[in-house]
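Audit log entry. Action: structure prediction of a protein-small molecule complex. Ligand: fe (ii) ion. The ligand was supplied as SMILES and no pocket hint was given, so placement is left entirely to the predictor. Protonation state taken as written. Sequence taken verbatim from the request; no trimming, no tag removal. Recorded inputs:
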Amino acid sequence: MLEIVPLSPIIGAQIRAIDLSAGVAASVATELRRALARHVALVFRRQRLSPDRLLAAVGALGQPERQNYSQFNHPEFPDIGILDYEGEQTPANMWHTDHTNRVAPPMATVLYAVAVPGHGGDTSIANMRAAYAALPATLQRELESLKTVNTFDGQFAVRANDRERFGTPVVHPLVRTHPETGEKALYFHILKAERIVGRTPQASRVFLQDLLDRAIEPAFVYRHRWQVGDVLVIDNRSAMHKVHDDYDRAEKRLLHRVIIAGDRPI
Ligand SMILES: [Fe+2]
């Protein structure tokens, strides 16, 4: 039995007394997936994960898959993305969910802290099921009728082979139903949502930003303060997340990211 300690009533749980580097048995992986669906974000402290051990642990939860920008791939382990915000890379400091430009976006994002600054650079995660549930019923009905058109967000250069694989615009529902819990959640990446179907890009952006401002309440958010060795697993089917771009860039902040294959949102 896993030791699961909720971090708040609405979002987040810490998984204690587990060494992910030792491998994850199938029965444990099933429990972890269930815990993820329930708690939206899982935290593991004090892990020591070489790239191959990280991929093995994540691989027990699901299928790791390639990320959008191959220029940020780990040179030897291309299923690991390097997040270091050096060079052209900048932090995603707005609420979003990852890789909505895919027909079947990743069910989860896994982050592993290799180096962290003394202060700042936290990652916040919002429970978008709770955010949706708290909206007025009339607005919920309107949102359920909307669809977004999603593509690369233009933040970074896109290599030709990445554009070929992942560049075709894809339509997703603005409200998706979690395949395991059956609950509904707001679902979009504000920069990748080029527009809402039937609206202009500009009107869509204003609408989506207003929706984020209105829907995400402090009680729905877990803010993770990084320590070296932390693993954070985010359920992308019911969460949005953002990086706090508030740390001293003279300090190193290096995370390894793995995304896990998911279903087409419905
Ligand atoms: Fe992200």
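Audit: result stored. The longest strand covers residues 108-115. The pocket of fe (ii) ion is lined by residues 92, 96, 98, 241 (CB under 6 Å).
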